Amino acid sequence: MTAYLFTNVKIFEGTKPKLEAGEVLVEGNRITAVARGRQTIGRERAGEVIDGGGATLMPGLINPHCHFTYSNAVSLADITALPVEENLLVAIRNARTYLDYGFTAVIGMASAKPRLELVVRNAVNKGEFPGPRIRACTPEYTVSGGVGDDSRLDRFVPSIGLVCNGAEEFRRSVRQLIREGVDLVKFNNAGDSFTFGRVGGECNPMTDDEVRAICETTLNLGKRLAAHAHADSGVRQCIKYGVEFINHATFSSAATIELLAKHAARHYVIPAIAARYNTTYEAQAWGITEEIATQIGNKRELEVGSANMAKMHRAGIKVLPFGDYGFAWIPIGQDCRDLEHLVNLFGFEPWEALRAATAYGGEAWAGNSGELLGRIKPGYWADLLLVDGDPLRDLSLLRDRERITHVMKDGEFYRRPTLVV
Ligand SMILES: [Zn+2]
């Protein structure tokens, strides 16, 4: 493996509010030295020197709520209807798109079909296809009538979710999916506006017994937990049963936010706010006007959720960006729009949004594995981006693939400019 020395770069370290001039050495798949200010790193250590020309060197982006098996369709039903073979091609293509846009690690947050995420993870790990580092998830677990149960009594309609009822059914199915090789188990202990009024976000259709069975089974087998939890009672169950990834958390009460703040080290909150903002204001072309978004409760989820995310952020709870890209009006690749949402809707400083997308995302991806990613620091994995411009001044740069000139994953360039001679 070549040793690369990045010179003449401004470094976003992952946790610091300002860019700093410096140099970074990559040896093998790790960052091994960082020099700041006027310090330099010996050129003799570098196989190749890359003069960044004043560009920003930052950690690769980490998406903790990724649906790389979704096809940018208009509805979940359209994704469910994709045969598994076509769906696999979509997933392979999306994995490459994520890497192209600078996402060097993602956490799957519900596979469209049971084995899709894990087979793509395995293929990427073997070097068969380009893609980010992947944590693979189950499909979303749900109960009859919950989010993700699309079945009908009058005819067969497949569901995107795995539908179980009662603790025993959940135990059996969770064990089977862990046997297949998932890294995390996700379940829906809340409704959602996307059920178009059938079961609203404030409702929680799962019993405590069912949630406990899912969580105990998963944790006993050493895997990790994620929940779709808009409802306050759902968020409470996540705290009670050790669910690390609390998605949405929209209707958390003041008392729940206080409790969550006490346990902030154990949880990540991922609002996936684009599924609210973009759906309310930018989905007219697909038939969802602001009026419809209001009727189904999507706009309310946006407003209540945004106010609560601002509170959680101020209370020191780790609120992470990204999530639910993979629909027509929130297409895969444009995920960094979320960084602007964090600033505009939740009151984040731009550097805090970028910290959540890198350093905090890295902690979330690693869990207790001991792996180090998401920062520019000796010992960390060499997952790096060179960005033409200053993303702290303009976060929208990160939505533009052309401005992300270099993408390095695991010490190797996935993409860099080629010299035309
Ligand atoms: Zn999602």
Quick gist of this model?
The protein has 421 residues and is α/β, with parallel strands linked by helices. It has 13 helices and 17 strands. Bound molecules: zinc ion.
Secondary-structure map:
Elements: E1 4-11, E2 20-27, E3 30-36, E4 48-51, E5 56-59, E6 61-66, H1 76-81, H2 84-100, E7 103-108, H3 116-125, E8 133-135, E9 137-142, E10 162-163, H4 167-180, E11 184-188, H5 208-220, E12 224-229, H6 232-241, E13 245-248, H7 254-262, E14 268-270, H8 274-282, H9 290-295, H10 298-314, H11 337-346, H12 350-357, H13 359-366, E15 384-387, E16 404-409, E17 412-415
Parallel strand pairs: 1-4, 1-5, 6-7, 7-8, 9-10, 9-11, 11-12, 12-13, 13-14
Antiparallel strand pairs: 1-2, 2-3, 5-15, 15-16, 16-17
Helix pairs in contact: 4-5, 8-10, 11-12, 12-13
The structure holds zinc ion (ZN).
Give structural notes.
Strand 12 (224-229), helix 6 (232-241) and strand 13 (245-248) form a beta-alpha-beta unit. The longest helix has 17 residues, at 84-100. The chain is globular. It folds into 2 domains: 4-59 and 374-415, Urease, subunit C, domain 1 (Roll); 61-366, Metal-dependent hydrolases (TIM Barrel, Alpha-Beta Barrel), CATH 3.20.20.140. The chain is built from 13 helices and 17 strands. By secondary structure, the chain is of the alpha/beta class. Helix 4 packs parallel to helix 5 and helix 12 (350-357) runs parallel beside helix 13. It binds zinc ion. Residues 65, 67, 109-110, 272, 323-324 line the site of zinc ion. Zinc ion (ZN) binds at residues 65, 67, 109-110, 272, 323-324.
